[in-house]
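Hi X.,

You mentioned you wanted examples for the new student's onboarding notes, showing what a folding record looks like when two proteins sit in one file. Here is a clean example. The first protein comes first, with its sequence line followed by its structure tokens.
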Amino acid sequence: MSHPIPSMDEWLREAKLDPDAPMVGMYLTHNGVVRATPKKQVRAVSEEEAAQGASLGEVVSIDFSYDAQGLEDAIAEARTWPGIYYVRVWLNEGVLEVGDSLMYVLIGADIRPHAVDALQRLVGHIKNNLVVEKERYSA
């Protein structure tokens, strides 16, 4: 069952009302979506791996779940990183189709390099350690 999609405009309005908002010089957002190209194909490190991925067919849906406590812990940790003053994350769940949103992340930081680094680090941790994605293919 899919979760209701958050409003990025509303998230930004709320972030700018946060007590730490005067410290923020940049908000950076991420919206991960289900794509039709298999992960094995787009993350391939060789032509052979890419061909193997392509042979799976197109992704039609994915089963998506996550570790809720791990996510809470990751958000709390991200708030301790240098220059980070605001962190908000939403993850979807269930059977999701191509084009459906998987994840929204909002980072508020003092300067651009801190925002970019935090977004990269947090999204990487979530994708590599906290979510389970099982792709379903057309072929």
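Then the second protein repeats the pattern, sequence line and then tokens:
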Amino acid sequence: MNDPDAVKAAAEKLRLAMISGEKSSLESLILQELSYGHSGGHIDDAQEFVEKLVTKKSDFLTIDVTNQTVQIVGNTAIVRHHFYATTADAGKAPGDVTLDILLVWAKVKNDWKLLARQAVKAEKKK
């Protein structure tokens, strides 16, 4: 049960799915109850989260994750990391994003599924 490597693997699959924007991959990693908080305050539900990535409204060219920690409590995992990305969002100039992220994963049967995510702006790359 207490398997941080499985949680890290799920987080890595999420990172890759966010870059690819592949709908089935994204949907396989999240719960329908997803609460996905952006650093600017907007909160996406599961459908909005997937739709933005599939349509390239949110388009990540690269995502790098550092300083990741995993804490498992029962069937819940808390993952924190620093998130650095280059973006090419539809209708916007290319950009860079530096964030601190909190992910909450829930174990459903044998899989870890994303239940919540909150981003805050980070001052600098750590």
